[in-house]
Amino acid sequence: MAIRNIVKEGDPILNKVCRPVTNFDDRLATLLDDMRETMIAADGVGLAGPQVGMLRRVFVVWDTTDAPEEIPENYEYKFIDFVNPEILAVSEDEETAYEGCLSFPGHNGAVTRPAAVKVRAQDRNGNWFELEAEGLLARCIQHENDHLDGITIMQSSEYFYEDTEEGKKLPVKRKETTDAHSVHGDPGYRRGVPEGPVCCRSRDLRCLHPPG
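Predicted structure:
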């Protein structure tokens, strides 16, 4: 496995639609393994193909479902590989949370998404599977799936943390939000399970509106 360079803001590949994967071979397995290692090294919870320069419909996520609040050094990560994913259904309930992105360091945007999703995808061997997810995993799947269609938090965010009163100035809201957590990428701190992030995590979580 190897750590790959993460494509950053300004690269046009981030706004292109990815092509389906047709070859399930060693090259695909190597790509997925490298993406896992790159994601963890960058302190992320999800990473999509175009973020490492590959215009293929593939992303990986860290399955935090049973992860402890504080991640020990010898923690064995559980990953889910999504190849040619299709979102089959979403819940009517929506949640708004700040999302960070490894390709847009320093930007944390408030994004409203369905609270639960049902997704169909292939694994690295080409076998189809279906998965129902909610909470952080559901948000992560939707965020990474957006990347495959050239959509980033720069388009999907209603406003950004740096534009809020807590950040720098008052926000310009486009719709009402609740329970939005701010998430900042901050490599080097003790790793913990995030409450509302996607590509970046933080020990410093703030709420726009306190729960309840």
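Summary: The longest helix spans residues 26-41.
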